[in-house]
Each structure stands twice: as C-alpha cells, then as structure tokens.
Amino acid sequence: MSPELTEPLVGQTSTETEDWWEQNKPPTDLIFDDGEPLESNRHRVSINLLCDSLLEVYRDRTDFFTGGNMFIYFSREQVKNKDFKGPDFFAVLDVDGSYTRQGWVVWDEGGRYPDVIIELMSPSTAKIDVTTKKDLYERTFKTADYFVYNPFDANSLRGWHLESSGNYEDIVANEKGWLWCQKLNLWVGVWQGEINRDFAPWLRFYDTEENLVLLPKEAERKRADNEQQRADNERKRAERLAAKLRELGEDPDSI
C-alpha cells in the first residue's frame, strides 16, 4: 500500500470505519498515457536500449521488472494533482517480473519503489532532474541508485547512491568515466556507436568484467558468429586430419 494509506483506528464504529475506507482507499481512476511525446527520437531509443539491455543480461531471471517512460503512482496527492510523470528508465528487483504492467502502482506492488532510476536529461528537464526529482527519489522513493544523462552530451553522466544515512552521495567514476550501479551489479557508461542509423554517445550497461552488455539482437548475432566460428574450426580440424592421413598413405574417406 501507499505510505499514506494507514489502518483505521481500533474502536471506531462500522460507519466511521466505512467512512475512513472511503476517504483513504487507493485511487482507481489512474491514467497511463498523457499523450505527450518524448524530447527526441534519441531519447526514445535510449529508453528502449536500457530496458532491452537489462532484459538480456537478466534473461534467465524473472525476479525483476524494468520499465521506461511509465507512470509511477505512489500517493493520493500525486493523483489528485495529476502529477503523473515517471522516470525514463527504472528497475525494481525481487518482484514478480513474469507479467507486464501499464505503469508502476506502489500500493499494488507491496509498497515497492524502484531500486534504480535513470533520467535522460534535456535542456528543459535538466534542472528538475537534479533537484526536484533527485529529492523525490532520495526522500520518498529511497531509490538506491540514481543516474542522469543527456543523450546529446557524452560528458553529462552523473550518479548518486543512497547511503545508510538516507542521503545521496555522488558515485565516483572509474578511469573510463563509468559509474558503478550497486543494485544491478553493473557499470553504467557511455558507448559511442551506431544504433538505428544514429551514431551517438549511448548510455549502456557493462558487466563486472567491463564487457558491454549486448542488446538482444547483438547477442543473437554474436551467438550466431560464435557458432559459425566453431563450425569453421571443426571443418579446418577435419581438413588437417584428412591431410595428415593422406601423408601416411591412408584414405580419410575410408575411415
């Protein structure tokens, strides 16, 4: 349930209890699409890239949920004020991720908030992302790892980790400029390359050995290349063995 949805007081009459539930029941008239476009096509592709990458690296797991550009509902006040904005990318661990959601409704998810959030900044959102939203994720969501990045600025990556004090502390970059995401056990860093015919500085994940986390299509292509390489190696090995047998006067086709 939402943090604002507390239990009725013991000793209340049935009428008082019914009134309490009427006033405090979770909102049900939620919307999940405000019709507003993203800042740019690169922002849209970046969101899909992050979600698809996490789904690929966690492909054998169903105990997480990842979403992008989705509403997160966490209080009645938020619904009343029609403040429906959600993070560009987020991940929640240790939840049932075997089914899809239209949005993330905290009181329907056992009070769970995102463990990791990434906001893709633009000139119109950058200030809010590092002030208002950062405060919300720190104080209300208590999100463990928060990152911001402008897909048009390779030097814009910043991140914070929630310490035991309950306050965000800056995540120090490694020598490559990557930031460590404790919750995902992955690096967050900038990769220069072409995606959807757009050569750009994309925000991507790297594993503990600093290997790029591949997109599903990239992983499929790599698996196919590896399989082809194994087949080529086996063919060359067979050819070498046949040549050796001929040197010894043996017919390899008769063996």
Automatic annotation (TrEMBL):
Source species, domain of life: Bacteria
One family name in Pfam for this protein: Uma2
Coiled-coil blocks: none
SUPFAM superfamilies from the UniProt entry: Restriction endonuclease-like
Region (Disordered): 1-25, 218-237
Signal sequence interval, chain numbering: none
InterPro entries: Nuclease_put_TT1808 (IPR012296), Restrct_endonuc-II-like (IPR011335), Uma2 (IPR008538)
Gene3D superfamilies for this protein: tt1808, chain A
Domain Putative restriction endonuclease: 29-180
PANTHER family: SLR1095 PROTEIN (PTHR33352), SLR1612 PROTEIN (PTHR33352:SF3)
Protein name: Putative restriction endonuclease domain-containing protein
Species of origin: Crocosphaera watsonii WH 8501
Taxon lineage: Bacteria, Bacillati, Cyanobacteriota, Cyanophyceae, Oscillatoriophycideae
